[in-house]
Write a structure and sequence with these properties.
single chain, mainly alpha, 80% helix
């Protein structure tokens, strides 16, 4: 009896995979924030930033224009809201969001910079 091997071709260095991961983290965080505290701004911001990351990842995966730029925009928005709060409050959640944002800024900023200068 023949067996079939199901393989998922997921590459860790693929920027679209990283964008999808960040989309899940930010959207999931926003939904969790709403579930725990009833915070409408948490769900609105989390799902919006997650949608930007997801759309950027989808456009990158399909080799359409502006995928990297959308993911970079999501990182800028996330960093703009979380880094000042992290510095002010020193609480774990804003610090974690800042780490996610800085990773996105570095990853997608490097890709964008490479395209612009090339």
């Amino acid at each position: 009896m023949p067996t079939t091997n199901l393989q998922l071709n997921i590459q860790q260095d693929d920027p679209s995979t990283q964008a999808f991961l960040l989309a899940c983290l930010t959207a999931g965080g926003g939904i969790t924030g709403y579930a725990r505290t009833g915070s409408i701004p948490s769900i609105a911001a989390g799902v919006t930033v997650g949608a930007l990351y997801g759309l950027g990842g989808l456009r990158q995966r399909n080799r359409q224009p502006y995928g990297v730029e959308l993911a970079l925009l999501a990182s800028v928005i996330l960093a703009g809201s979380s880094v000042p709060r992290a510095m002010k409050t020193m609480k774990p959640l804003p610090i974690g969001l800042s780490v996610v944002a800085v990773f996105g800024l570095y990853r997608f900023g490097s890709l964008w910079n490479g395209r612009v200068l090339a």
